[in-house]
Design goal:
Distance between the termini: 29 Å
Structural class: mainly alpha
Shape: elongated
Strand content: under 5%
Number of helices: 4
Radius of gyration: 21 Å
Largest sheet: none
Helix content: over 70%
């Protein structure tokens, strides 16, 4: 009973986080679209500005494209987590579906790390090109560790599914 309550709380928290990331993604996408289709909104900033308004727009598009991809990946990650938590059955936890969802979450986490690494390097290159320091795309190395742990857990689940199927055949 205690585990079921914890699982229910985790489901609710996962949905709240999913909705929060979805709202964040939608607001970033709206802001990106607004600034691209209304380039006159680019004003002077405290940092060293690029050489022209066209350069500022191109820099903005490059940086925001990575931010939007990462934000979309966060939404997909939490969508996958909510799907996983809704499929977990405490009476029969070792199912192929749960193992597949865990493996998918591990790959999303790994891809988040890869995209954040690429975005950080592109961001660094942009900063060198315009002689300013923008540190917008952060690299989270924790994603690599968490992806490995979740992948290992998914393999344990796959092995548990195989053992459970073997046991069902012997009975």
């Amino acid at each position: 009973m205690k585990t079921e309550k914890i699982l229910m709380i985790l489901r609710v928290l996962a949905w709240v986080i999913l909705v929060g990331y979805a709202i964040n993604f939608a607001s970033q996408l709206f802001t990106f679209g607004w600034k691209v289709f209304h380039p006159e909104t680019f004003g002077s900033t405290d940092a060293t500005p690029p050489r022209s308004a066209q350069d500022a727009l191109l820099v903005y598009i490059r940086v925001m494209s990575f931010i939007l991809v990462l934000s979309g990946m966060y939404v997909y990650l939490w969508y996958s987590v909510t799907g996983l938590l809704s499929r977990i059955n405490l009476n029969n936890p070792f199912t192929a579906e749960v193992a597949k969802k865990l493996e998918g979450i591990a790959f999303v986490l790994f891809n988040l790390w890869v995209v954040s690494m690429i975005g950080h390097q592109v961001n660094k290159r942009i900063s060198w090109d315009i002689d300013a320091s923008y540190d917008i795309v952060q690299v989270s190395t924790e994603f690599l560790l968490i992806a490995g742990i979740v992948y290992i857990i998914s393999q344990v689940y796959k092995h548990g599914v195989a053992l459970q199927q073997e046991q069902d055949l012997t009975i």
